[in-house]
Amino acid sequence: MQILLNINENHILEPQNETLAKLAKVNGVLFPGGDGDYLEYGSMSLEFVQDPRHTKMFNWLGEEAFLFENYNMTYNAHHQGMNPEKFKSDKGLSEIFHHTAISYMPDGRPFVASVESDKYPFFGTQFHPEKAARVYREDLYIDHSWLSINLNKHFAEYFVYQTRQNPNNYGTYSETQRDIIQNYDLIVSDQWFDTVYVFKQF
């Protein structure tokens, strides 16, 4: 987490390989060890613990945000999660984040579904918004309704909006072209990730 705080506070723009290496270390830090076994995969609804219209991540949706409470549109694919009470009692998490929504396991156990920070442009979801429009395996039970696809794409749009707040510039058009993802090999698959880009080296 300190890595992300440093990058944010000092407006650091690093070479791609250095950033990827640091993010690899960060992956899994927010929920270390989780809080026991949770649903492997399935679509769920949200229960907001804060009015979504007063959050950073959901407020663009206005009243439509509440549709996430009415339909099972958030696709979860994970083995571990964080109990809301444990989340609030964890000093390292609660000093930076607060949770804005929860979901429930079939056995009734709640887990944190979305978080954000009041101090930093840090946001997170336990669910996978990208799956609704990208993964069509029948056995994964993803909601592919038009409503689900359009509401879930909000998170991608909000992510891009946040990146545009960064004043750093990657470089000229020509300098940017050598690092765009289209330069890497693409594997199209009917397996878990649908499409996979292969980074041969960092």
From TrEMBL:
GO terms for cellular component: vacuole. Signal peptide: none annotated. GO terms for biological process: tetrahydrofolylpolyglutamate metabolic process. The keyword Lyase does not apply. The active site is at H128 (proton donor). Keywords: Hydrolase. It comes from the Eukaryota. One of its GO terms (molecular function) is gamma-glutamyl-peptidase activity. This is Gamma-glutamyl hydrolase a-like.
